[in-house]
Amino acid sequence: MKNDSFKIIDKSGDRKYFTIIPNYIVNHSTVYEQAIYLYMKRVAGETGSCWESPINIAKKLGVDPKTVRKYQKKLVERGWIEIIGTHRKTKPTIEYRIVDLWELNTRHYAEKTREKEKGNNTFSQRSGNESRMKEESAPLVKVSDGNKEEPIQENLSNKIENIYAHFTEKIHKESRLTDGAKTKIKKRFENYTEEELVRAMDNFSENKWSMENNAHRGIAWFFENDDRIDQFLNLPKTKKTRTGKYDHLITKS
Hints:
Number of domains: 2
Helix content: 40-55%
CATH superfamily of the largest domain: Winged helix-like DNA-binding domain superfamily/Winged helix DNA-binding domain
CATH class of the largest domain: Mainly Alpha
Structural class: mainly alpha
């Protein structure tokens, strides 16, 4: 008999209107990581992706966009979400895919179950229940909400001067470093390293359209907000290497 392959498509609709996440996420994350992960997973669905901007996500969750960016980076570091590219050519946003963690979830709790079964040989049922409750409860982790200003580093003024020097060399040599511009650069240091800000300037300077249409706007415009830095970080990269004469001033973070 011929063995024909076939595909079953479930159209019952019994999985509509809710989102399932692994217990591993709930028991190994902070409240901000949980909220952002759950929202992104709901948007992406089972097989899709999420490219909503941090501003939109922040509005839905009632938090600061800086908080969203901070914990999206942590989720990427944990390996729970991954960056797969950018979405849209104008005002691009980072596109994320939710990593399939169900195998990890099953393996983790199967191992916990085996450990409990071994423990039942020497401990009472009561102690076993107490152990289970302790393991399954999410640890209380004191985290920053991302909205408080970080302590000012001693070398912050030097970093701002270095950023300004790089900007005048690469983008607009006549741009003035006003007090307002200093404040905006300082705010960007809350969520970006010096290397990231330099890379944003390099990407901008190597993009012909950006230089022709926006270079004249000046340094205060460039560092206006985090979304603008994200946009410049996502501009198409070139094979050119940075050869700025002020590069030796850039401190490594």
